[in-house]
Specification:
The chain has 241 residues and is α+β, with helices and mostly antiparallel strands. Helices cover 16% and strands 31% of the residues.
């Protein structure tokens, strides 16, 4: 007679399978190829294999997950899991045994292998035309004969030199405008979004400015730090969705 099996689903990877009843969550993860931190090799001393047991019926997985489907919370687990976390369903995967179906969520810090970006970043020819552009200005300081307000003075310079008309300005940017204009003797780099709104005023001449591109997929969220001056991808990273 074959031993009884239970169903376990690991999220966010979506890995699932039938596991022999009584095995630990860590053993289940190893059998299903789920990367789960276990620095001490399952010796109950590192506390790195923390997981969260979800409660309820999950129609998508056809699974009725319950924290009662696991072995009782142990004194060893109390060393690494506080009462509030215990109430939220946290367990140590090396100790908690599966006595019934369970949906197990792996927090970011418990995932053994960092997900890599699967989409290759390639150099492609394109016309660089970012939504946010820098404009360097040198303003004439106000005088008693010409006491124009800072924003009006800046707006006039942007219209005269670059043809930008009827610009809006972010409130916090407006609040910091007097200080930022005077810091470098009325020289500043103005970041303008879509030729409509002033997002930031940087004292002096800004050599580089950056934007972030976000790719939200079904399994991966990837972020790319892009140099908006030359179009290069300076850095990239990703996490599971």
């Amino acid at each position: 007679m074959e031993p009884k099996q239970v169903t376990v689903v690991f999220q966010p990877s979506g890995r699932r399978g039938q596991i022999e009843i009584g095995k630990s969550i860590l053993e289940a993860a190893q059998e299903l190829g789920v990367a789960l931190e276990s620095v001490c090799g399952g010796k109950h001393v590192c506390g790195k294999c923390r997981v969260r047991i979800e409660e309820g019926f999950y129609a998508r997985d056809g699974l009725n997950s319950s924290r009662g489907h696991l072995s009782p919370f142990s004194a060893e687990e109390q060393k690494f899991i506080n009462p509030q976390e215990q109430e939220s369903g946290y367990r140590l995967a090396c100790i908690a045994q599966l006595n019934g179906d369970a949906l197990v969520y792996l927090p970011e810090e418990s995932r053994g292998k960092k997900q890599v970006i699967r989409k290759e970043v390639r150099d492609l020819p394109f016309n660089l035309n970012p939504g946010v552009k820098p404009y360097f200005v040198e303003l004439i300081p106000p005088t008693l004969a010409e006491p124009l307000a800072d924003f009006e003075r800046l707006s006039q310079a942007l219209e005269k030199e670059f043809g930008l008309k009827r610009l809006l300005i972010d409130f916090l940017t407006l609040k910091n405008l007097p200080q930022n204009l005077r810091e470098k003797n009325w020289q500043a780099t103005v970041l303008v979004w879509m030729d409509r709104e002033i997002l930031e005023v940087i004292p002096g001449r800004a050599e580089n400015y950056y934007g972030v591109a976000v790719d939200i997929g079904t399994t991966t969220v990837a972020l790319y730090l892009c140099n908006l001056k030359n179009g290069k991808v300076e850095a990239a990273d990703s996490i599971m969705n």
